[in-house]
Amino acid sequence: MANTKKTTLDITGMTCAACSNRIEKKLNKLDDVNAQVNLTTEKATVEYNPDQHDVQEFINTIQHLGYGVAVETVELDITGMTCAACSSRIEKVLNKMDGVQNATVNLTTEQAKVDYYPEETDADKLVTRIQKLGYDASIKDNNKDQTSRKAEALQHKLIKLIISAVLSLPLLMLMFAHLFNMHIPALFTNPWFQFILATPVQFIIGWQF
């Protein structure tokens, strides 16, 4: 195999050598796949051509034989969600990620629970993906209570509000200057200046809305 990738899967449910041999034979029947299953470590090491296969295919093959592939569960704290559409959007994106078995997002508690295959993804990738959607996310800290999390979220929103107000104020002054025929500094009427002020408010701070 010229173009190969290697992955290791944690397998559950094997009780004897016949189990590991059965899984190994089934995986090796796939084109351009070289698999070794170790009963002692309960792991399968698979070399494959990524142009023909992906890890999810191997997981499905193992599960079809009646065995399981170990998943990990992580809880994430998410801030910035304002409505059910926000939580639904995050949930859909997470469930489409490679390696995610199941993801649920709760708007009320501002948390997500994600079951994932550690061979395919990890908690940091989940957090990064949520952040790219315009929300703040972090791995749940069980030492933090709900009040402190909400206080942090409120503080973050306040900072965004202040930045938005500072950037929007010159544009607001320009509008009132036009209404009351007041003197307008030349800089305020420059389209590029207005663009620089408005863009962060609309596409960075206001992206999540």
UniProtKB/TrEMBL annotation:
Entry membrane topology: Multi-pass membrane protein
Main localization category: membrane
InterPro entries associated with the record: Heavy-metal-associated_CS (IPR017969), HMA_Cu_ion-bd (IPR006122), HMA_dom (IPR006121), HMA_dom_sf (IPR036163), MerP/CopZ (IPR001802)
Keywords annotated in UniProt: Copper, Copper transport, Ion transport, Magnesium, Membrane, Mercuric resistance, Mercury, Metal-binding, Translocase, Transmembrane, Transmembrane helix, Transport
Taxonomy, superkingdom: Bacteria
Family: Belongs to the MerP family.
The protein, known as: Mercuric transport protein periplasmic component
Organism, scientific name: Escherichia coli
